[in-house]
Amino acid sequence: MTIPSVTYKQFGETVVPVAPVGTKRWIVLYIMVAAVLLTTLACWNNLSGGSLIEMFEDDSDAPPPHTEYAKMARYLVHKAEWVSMGSLSTVDAIKGFPMVNIISVADSARNEKSTGTLYFYLTMLDYTAQDLHKDNRLTVMLTLDQDLYCSKNGIDPMEPTCARIMISGRADKIENGTEEYAFGSRAMFTRHPAAQKWIQTDGHNFFLCKLNITQIAVLDFYGGPHYVTLDDYMAADPDKRTEAVSSSSTGNERQIPPRFSTTEDSTATMA
């Protein structure tokens, strides 16, 4: 009579099941297939210039290609919360010298479509308004690094590849009670809530202005600035991924409400 041998496990000991040989083979096969697919995907992406990976990236707020100068200008204007505004000084010691200031701006209410027209508040207590009252010519500069986009991507703000635009024109005061005044005020209030306190403060007498554009210079790559016409600037839509075609060649200019039209009299000074 043969007594069968019995293996006992200690109390609390866990028995680890051994995977069948066939299961191990399938695991190895899955790993090999996954490695081949990832390698193929990487090679395909390199051959396509990275376009494959871009399909999975959220580029809804990415700047347009540097060759689309009108769209780049509209893109920077629409994103801008402030500008560096240059004027001709009226201060006796530096009369006629260039002077610069930081001015809060808005081209539309937050999260609404771009208009391309910069609105801003001024007060005669500030030297910029005093300068523009004497001579309403000005130049504003906007940079892609206003939200640290360039710095975060390892691009120095002075590099041409960190896009910037210089817009020259005239400051025009907008009359209170008009449709454009309501639009511009709402645009400023949504982006700059503090502006509501400015106009309510006794003695400051803030008033709403807009910039009527004379020239647009775009520097967003090596080789010097490119000059964008006002028609092409207004026709460009920063919300679309493709550049709008110049209205001079197609007649399909993007319709801008009359309240955003530019002032024809370029000799007027700001009241």
TrEMBL record:
KW Ion transport (keyword) present: no
Feature: compositional bias, Polar residues: 244-253, 260-271
UniProt cross-references to Pfam families, sorted A to Z: CREG_beta-barrel
PANTHER family: CELLULAR REPRESSOR OF E1A-STIMULATED GENES, ISOFORM A, CREG1 PROTEIN
UniProt keyword terms in alphabetical order: Membrane, Transmembrane, Transmembrane helix
Transmembrane segments: 27-47
Region listing for Disordered, in residue ranges: 241-271
Name of protein: CREG-like beta-barrel domain-containing protein
Database matches in InterPro entries: CREG_beta-barrel (IPR055343), Split_barrel_FMN-bd (IPR012349)
Gene Ontology cellular component terms for the protein in this record: cytoplasm; extracellular space
Residues in CREG-like beta-barrel domain copies: 64-234
